[in-house]
């Protein structure tokens, strides 16, 4: 098992947000984390990377208990986090944004690996351009590429298709599948679009009120489950 959460409870101040979350992710999985807004999906990802403190329970990654390990060390363990909204540095060039990702991992590259531009050929054309001048879809590709620069074992992606035109969504889906297939990187993707989740992932987890209430193979993500937990 690559990542295992056992009875994980997380609070913001005195307000509990996650309640006894259990989740198991195997090496090579692509898993989608689904649920309505405000159910704790982002908090769960932030807890895995160490940005939210776990009040009780355990997070085990690659056989090591990382529950109390600081964020920068989790990045060196091989956990990469691509946050909602991308959070690239707008005034830095594409190249410098990529170099920032390089600094997070244990393996240090002397230059940007060619595979980055194989996955995201658009970036090679814009290396000197400021990140803030890219389109939303281009910024998302840069954010994913930056996450790859740390040479991760697992990537946590928070709504990578948000606000992006359909043609770029299709590109991102195919690229994520390639990253998983060709590099063996495990993916956990927070997503609102059920169709995207069905096409991308092998596993799903549905959250409601800070807990995982359903999970299984994506082939078993029925319309009844969608209506019960995801319909607005």
UniProtKB/TrEMBL annotation:
InterPro entries named in the record: AAA+_ATPase, ABC_transporter-like_ATP-bd, ABC_transptr_urea_ATP-bd_UrtE, BCAA_Transport_ATP-bd_LivF, P-loop_NTPase
Entry coiled-coil feature ranges: none
Annotated transmembrane regions: none
Taxonomy of the source species: Bacteria, Bacillati, Cyanobacteriota, Cyanophyceae, Pseudanabaenales
Keywords: Amino-acid transport, ATP-binding, Hydrolase, Nucleotide-binding, Transport
Name of the protein in question: Urea ABC transporter, ATP-binding protein UrtE
SUPFAM superfamilies referenced in this protein's UniProt entry, alphabetically: P-loop containing nucleoside triphosphate hydrolases
Family of the protein in this entry: Belongs to the ABC transporter superfamily.
Domain named ABC transporter: residues: 3-232
Family matches, as Pfam families: ABC_tran
Entry's Gene Ontology molecular function annotations: ATP binding; ATP hydrolysis activity; branched-chain amino acid transmembrane transporter activity
Source organism, top-level taxon: Bacteria
